[in-house]
Design brief:
Layout: H1 20-30, E1 36-37, H2 52-60, H3 75-88, E2 98-101, H4 103-115, E3 121-126, H5 131-138, E4 142-149, E5 155-156, H6 158-163, E6 169-175, H7 187-200, E7 203-207, H8 223-226, E8 232-237, E9 250-255, H9 262-274, H10 280-287, H11 290-301, H12 306-319, E10 324-325, E11 334-335, E12 338-339, H13 341-344, H14 349-360, E13 362-363, E14 365-366, E15 378-381, H15 386-401
Parallel strand pairs: 1-13, 3-4, 3-6, 6-7, 7-8
Antiparallel strand pairs: 2-9, 4-5, 8-9, 10-12, 11-15, 14-15
Helix pairs in contact: 1-14, 2-10, 3-10, 4-5, 4-9, 12-15
Length: 406
Amino acid sequence: MKEFKKSYKLDNVCYDIRGPVMEAAERLEKEGHSIIKLNTGNPAHFGFSPPENMKQNIINNMERTEAYVASQGIASAREVILEDFLAKGFSGIDIDDIYLGNGVSELISMAVTALVNGGDEVLIPSPDYPLWTATVTLAGGKAVHYKCDESSDWQPDLKDLESHISDRTRAIVIINPNNPTGAVYSKSVIEGFIALARKYDLILLSDEIYDRILYDGDTHYSPAVLADDVFTITFNGLSKVYLAAGYRSGWMVLTGSRARTRDYREGLGILANMRLCGNTFAQLAIEAGFSEGIAAIGRLIEPAGRLHTQRNAIYDGISKIPGISCVKPKGALYLFPKLDGGQFNISDDEKFVLDFLMEKKILLVHGRGFNWNAPDHFRIVFLPPMEELLHVVEAMGDFLEGYRQK
């Protein structure tokens, strides 16, 4: 009898944040080991909680969750998001430009699927959040990676980006603040993206899920605010800033010429209708708690706040380990340290994080899992409590002291 195989479309798709090394961690857990999981930015797992009135609004309005709602989302929830975007400086938008979905992940899939034909190219940063590369690939497109420069605090290399633009290029992905590097892009870099979009008539896909998680007074710039003439799709949600990853609640807003995007919007409408609607529980959460959530994350990122102090602690500790260097993140929830390949003879970074997991029972993600082109980086989530982070630093130093790959 024939073997039933997966689709060939999955041959070049990976999501190593939840890949083979995590599967090894789950096997260790079944054997009775306790694993420190630093592979995902999952706030609730580390004691963070969304605003209380978000939770209460769901409880108080359960009867409203029993029926399908509008495919673009509940109007009252979209009104709240509209007010937030307008407060950020977005212009020329109304609730019909806003789509709600089951997390930003679903909306990325919708936006890319509605755009890409077979062989079309989308420019994506390297390193990236791997969902972007996977989604473009599954849609039949080609993910083309442009370089982010570690020596320039991981700012995108716009010359490298432009060198990859072809007649098949449809869009540029911007991840700012960046996952996995924690880079926050300068205004001049965002203006550079805008200039290239204008020059080559491209769409900007701006992933801004960490836009309010900024340290040391840094500023976040949205391309849609700086250029309302360039067609931009801006993505955000409840998962990170509002500490509600499990609610699976995201949104995207379309800015730019409606006349030029009428056919594309029709395609988005088809996809939104096909999935009927986003989950209504999460849309009720959007209605309440926006201001409370913004205030809460503000307290966490201020100099005495938990995220700020934990970022400093993990950065200082990791940077002191011989053979590791690291750019200090200015936003988001991650460190992306670099290993001295010569010192540790590392040719396989996935093996490195697997070896670390087996010896120290700490789960990380290797750099090539973020479409980085060399086996010399790994990502650490700095959400755990301080004592756990300090334990991770000690464990990493101890592990590397005698580590060499054969």
